Amino acid sequence: MTSQVFDQVSMNAPMAMYHLAGSPNRWFVVERNGRVRVFDDMPNPTNNEVSTFVDLNFPVMRVDAEGEGGLLDIAFHPDFGVGGNYEVFFSYTRDNGGPNLIESVISRFYSLNMGTTLDSTVEEVILTIPQDFNNHNGGQIRFGQDGFLYAGWGDGGSGGDPNDRAEDTTNLLGAFTRIDVDGGNPYAIPPGNPFAANAATPCSAGFGGASCPEIFAWGVRNPWRWSFDSQTGALWAGDVGQNAWEEVDVIENGMNYGWDIREGAHCHEPTSGCATAGLVDPITEYDHSQGSSITGGFVYRGSAVPELGGQYVFGDFITGRVWVVPATSSQGTAPTEILDTNFSIVSFAEDLNGELYIIDIGGTVHQIVDMP
Q: What pLDDT is stored for residue 218 in this prediction?
């Protein structure tokens, strides 16, 4: 079961919510419209305790929320607050002024007041990706335990990957990327990336003449919310399906997850007899009789719900259902449904104690407090 929390906090289309190490009582809420709001959860917050950490649309408009776009995520530098480092990275979509509707952007901003707010007047654009259409942007970013910045990108949109982006490693669409934001200008390529030999020709504008050295893994359709297991470091991702199957993958270096040859563990193009050599099966999947837009979650490492220990928790945006699979699962494990809610589950959040929260895009937050 769940319990609504922070019900006095006003949130406008929240996309993600973060607890920040070093500031254990502060929650940061990423709003699709371009704002990041911050509130203190001790004592119980009220509306007048919520403040704006940064607004990317002030003093100039940046964020274009057309289609599935908007401000999609933020990532605090691993050393945020240490030794004068107050860097925060943003992933959002903007109008690129060209033939494409929008483009995805990763940028760096700084705090000038020791992390109280961010300065929105100075932006360092690190990477851009032109989008073929205005859906399937992906856009989540997160630092791994290795200190590198990871991002998950959709296939460019429309349906069925019409431009065959996800299986083409000469572009960043339909892929997970990994870059070193501290090692170069605008970044360096980690030597372990599968195409790191092409580091001299990066795809910082989304495309290149050879396989992009930024790529960590590829063959995904629209990874919507993914996380690192706080105990093992494994990268768990929910990948939104086309019209039949939703899937959960554990993303590993150099692996191909099969879209659009396959949707989940099933042939998509062609619909039968597809080549499967070298493609990674999902850990679990569910069909569209149960839900039709997966939202990835977290491996539960909290203590309030012991029965959830070591379970990967994920949900569906359309039906509000929530499932689990053990973090030790092999590929092809069937999920177990634990909740059937009326939430539009846009994201999950994890606090510093490992407890999990469900974020409804309508602006409410619900903590998982018990197993049914």
A: 98
